[in-house]
Design a protein that fits this description.
AhpD-like, peroxiredoxin activity, Carboxymuconolactone decarboxylase, 4CMD/NDH-1_regulator, 2 domains, 7 helices, mainly alpha, single chain
């Protein structure tokens, strides 16, 4: 694998945790292997690995973008990542308030519900 892939896996593990990455890798198949490499190198090895802004700020941006675009399936995963990125519950609330104003209350409302549910699960673990 490339240096970008290696850096991506390192960053992915730092943000999402080893357990999540191991589960995702176990589900990888020949069908989606090239796509997974693209994501690892592009998202994790380039964008998330950049020193331009902190992982905390990237968490807030990612959650806001996911909510604004209605990509709700990944919100719980990125809420869980806040335990490693340093984005607080207040940070997440602030990000979703921006979503409410600039992208719509229903999307922000659903994202907040997912965040509350995920935080509750995290507290039980």
């Amino acid at each position: 694998m490339s240096d970008k892939y290696d850096k991506g896996m390192q960053t992915r593990r730092a943000v999402l945790g080893d357990a999540h990455v191991e589960r995702a890798e176990a589900c990888k198949s020949d069908f989606d292997s090239a796509f997974q490499t693209l994501i690892t190198e592009g998202a994790w090895g380039t964008v998330w690995a950049s020193d331009g802004i902190s992982h905390r700020e990237r968490s807030m941006l990612t959650l806001a973008l996911l909510a604004a675009l209605g990509n709700f399936e990944e919100i719980p995963m990125h809420i869980r990542a806040t335990a490693r990125t340093g984005a607080s519950k207040q940070d997440v609330l602030e990000a979703f308030q921006h979503v409410a104003i600039y992208a719509g209350v229903p999307r922000a409302n659903h994202a907040l519900k997912l965040a509350k549910d995920t935080y509750a699960e995290m507290e039980q673990e």
